Amino acid sequence: MSLVVMATGGTGGHIYPAVATARELVRRGHTALLLGQRGGMEERVAREQDLEFVGVDAGKLARSGQGRPDPRELLRAGKGILEARRVLQQRRPGVVVGYGGFASLPGVLAAQSLRIPTVLHEQNARLGLTQRLAVRQARAIGTAYETVIGLDPARATLVGMPVREDRLDRAEALARLKLREGPLTIFVMGGSQGSLFLNNTVPDTLRHVLGAEGLLDATGAGRGTRVSETGHHLPAIDLDFVHGTHAAPGTGGAAVQVLHSTGPRWLPEVAPGVKDLEWYHPVGYVDAVAAWSVADLAITRAGTSTLAEAAFHGVPLVMVPLPESSENHQFHNGKSVEASGAGVVVEQREAQGTLGPAVLECAEPRRRAAMQAAARARAQVGAAARFADLIEAQLSGPRAD
């Protein structure tokens, strides 16, 4: 069978789809190798997933609106391409697959310079910068969205977003995460490395709308107040929690627990601020499969990998897109989810006044049930297998040893 090189790295949104596809190709008898930035997150993930990894230099390119590129980064990118060429000449893969992001560029451009077939996966609703540099010579392009701005539809094949298609029994996942059975579980996650903005904003917002006891009452307000941080009245909605699954006996409301994945770097800053809240559980790094398996509602950014995992698990979303994302792709991603009914977009510049009310509205049982159904309808189950089919169709040349 063939050797397939996955050119990926930088963030979990680029790395985990590559891992999911690599595992599918290995299951089919191929050999998979991850090629990324030396010392990057992808090196650790490859080791954890028992996948071979080779690291090269990778330079970050300036995006639109970020000014002129740093010459040092361009030199690193050029050095990375030369290093990747040597790796590919030695290993002679049948195909190189690029997942976008600066860490994928050396592998993809090196492959194209050696006339090795390349396949791209575009995970966003707008074609990214690194993909635009490689798309002309790519043999095939798999996409996560039916329409991708900047990409000729005739060249696109809708495959979906490859994710880890694993679920845990709720009781098992709760035990693994040391959470309680009963409370409404809100999962807060700002990506694989955490989000400084969500870390700084969400704890105070949820304290404000849920009160010190972490309860929702029948009016839709928290136990402490019925106005938002900016003085806006919180929505008066029928939560009907008093006799529901998440009812807190004797309170006339619903118990809530929060699992907040802060990213390892930020945990020491977040944890002290919520130590008085028994219902708030910050962790540096979380077992994502377990977390999604217990989540009733999630507050996230709007990276495609996050959105795909939420859809697979049927979890409604309150999304705060990263404003600095390339080509503002997270905003476009989030709006697509919002249009489907599976989530609500809260723009970062407006989050102080609107995040709390959005969470309360999405927590209402009937609204949440409708959003869960919409999320499941968005799930692109089998995306890794479909993308592996597309890759196999382009395989040619020497075989792996």
Describe this structure in words.
This protein is of the alpha/beta class and 401 residues long. It contains 14 helices and 15 strands. The strands form two sheets. Strands 8, 9, 10, 11, 12, 13, 14 and 15 form an eight-stranded mixed β-sheet that branches. It has a seven-stranded parallel β-sheet with strand order 3-2-1-4-5-6-7, sandwiched between helices. β14 (317-319), α11 and β15 (343-345) form a beta-alpha-beta unit. α1 packs across α14 and α10 crosses α13 (365-378). It is elongated, with a radius of gyration of 22 Å. The termini are close together. Mean pLDDT is 89; it is low at 397-401.
Identify the notable features of this structure and list them briefly.
alpha/beta, 401 residues, 15 strands, 8-stranded mixed sheet, elongated, 14 helices
Helix content: 25-40%
| Rounded radius of gyration (Å) | 22 Å
Q: What distance lies between the first and last C-alpha atoms, to the nearest angstrom?
A: 9 Å
Quick one: how many beta strands?
A: 15
> Poorly predicted ranges (pLDDT <50, ≥5 residues)?
397-401
Q: Percent of residues in beta strands?
A: 15-25%
Largest sheet: 8 strands, mixed
Order of helices and strands: EHEHEHEHEHEEHEHEEEHEHEHEHEHHH
Structural class: alpha/beta
Average pLDDT metric: 89
Per DSSP, the total helix count is 14
The shape is elongated
